[in-house]
Design brief:
The protein is low in regular secondary structure. The chain contains two helices and four strands, in the order ααββββ.
C-alpha cells in the first residue's frame, strides 16, 4: 500500500510539473491575444456604411484571427495593427495602409494588395496556396505596392511585384541555422516565377532567395544583396545591378543581356555557373 501511494504521489508530481512547463511555454510562445478589438461583422458593416471616399481608420488595433475573406477594405488604414492569422482570401486591399503591420500567418490567397502601403510590415509564413500543388495563380498581388523595409519569410510562386517599391526589403532567412530562436526555421525563402519587372529593389536583401525563373527586367537592384541566391533562368534584361553583390549566387541560364552596371557588380564573375549565363 505504501509503495502504491508513493508511486501515486510521484505520478501526480510529474503531471503537475508537466502542466507547469506547458503553461510557461504557452506564456512564452503564445504569439497573439485571441481577442480582437473588433469583430469581422463590425468591420464589414462599418465599411458598408462608410461614405464614398472615406477611409476608415483601424490603426494600432488587435485584429488577430479575423475572417475578412472577400472583403473590400476601400483603402482603409490599418497602420501598426496586429493582423496575425487574419483571413484575407480574395480580399480587395488595394491602396490600403498596412504600414508597420504584422501579417504573419495571414491567409493571402488571391488577395489584391496592389498599391497598398506595406512599409516596414512583416509577412512571416503566410498562407498563399489553396493546396499542395503551389499553383502560381493562387498568390497575392503586390503590383505598385510600397514595401520599403518589409520583412519576409515565405514561399511565393508567380506573385506579382511589378513596379513595387521593395527598397531595403529583407527576403533573407530569419535564421542562418535551425534552432536559433524560431520554432520552425526555413533555410531559405522562395520567390519562384515571380514578376519583379520595374520594381525598386535598391539595397534589398535577397540573400539565399530562390528566384528561379523570376522576371527582374528593368528592376533597380543597385546595391542589392544577392549572395547565395538561386538566380537560375532569372531575367535581368535592362535591370540596374550597379554595386549588387552576387557572391556565391547561381546564375545558370540567367539572362544578363542588356543589364546595366555589370562591370560594377560584386562577385559576379566568380558566381556559380556564370559561364552558363546569357550575356
Amino acid at each position: 500500500m505504501r509503495i502504491a501511494l508513493v508511486k501515486l504521489i510521484w505520478c501526480v508530481g510529474l503531471m503537475l510539473a508537466g502542466l507547469s512547463r506547458a503553461i510557461a511555454a504557452d506564456q512564452i510562445y503564445a504569439p497573439v491575444d485571441p481577442h480582437a478589438d473588433f469583430t469581422a461583422r463590425q468591420i464589414t458593416l462599418a465599411l458598408a456604411q462608410a461614405a464614398p471616399g472615406v477611409r476608415l481608420d483601424y490603426s494600432n488595433h488587435d485584429l488577430t484571427y479575423l475572417d475578412l475573406s472577400g472583403i473590400d477594405v476601400k483603402g482603409a488604414i490599418f497602420k501598426g495593427s496586429d493582423l496575425y492569422g487574419v483571413d484575407f482570401t480574395s480580399a480587395n486591399l488595394k491602396g490600403a495602409d498596412l504600414s508597420g503591420t504584422r501579417l504573419d500567418r495571414a491567409v493571402l490567397i488571391h488577395a489584391d494588395l496592389s498599391g497598398a502601403d506595406l512599409t516596414g510590415a512583416t509577412i512571416f509564413r503566410p498562407t498563399v496556396f489553396t493546396d499542395l500543388s503551389n499553383s502560381t495563380t493562387d498568390g497575392p498581388k503586390f503590383a505598385g505596392a510600397t514595401m520599403s523595409g518589409a520583412r519576409f519569410s515565405m514561399i511565393f510562386a508567380g506573385t506579382d511585384f511589378r513596379g513595387a517599391d521593395l527598397s531595403k526589403a529583407d527576403f533573407g532567412p530569419l535564421e542562418f541555422k535551425p534552432g536559433q530562436g524560431t520554432m520552425v526555421t526555413m533555410l531559405f525563402n522562395v520567390c519562384r516565377a515571380c514578376n519583379f519587372s520595374g520594381a525598386n529593389m535598391r539595397e534589398a536583401i535577397l540573400f539565399r532567395l530562390d528566384m528561379v525563373f523570376s522576371n527582374l527586367s528593368g528592376a533597380d537592384l543597385t546595391g542589392a544583396i544577392l549572395r547565395e541566391a538561386d538566380l537560375s533562368n532569372v531575367d535581368f534584361s535592362g535591370a540596374d545591378v550597379t554595386g549588387a553583390d552576387f557572391t556565391g549566387a547561381d546564375l545558370y541560364g540567367a539572362k544578363l543581356t542588356g543589364a546595366k552596371g555589370l562591370d560594377q557588380a560584386k562577385g559576379l564573375t566568380t558566381a556559380k555557373n556564370y559561364d552558363k549565363a546569357m550575356k
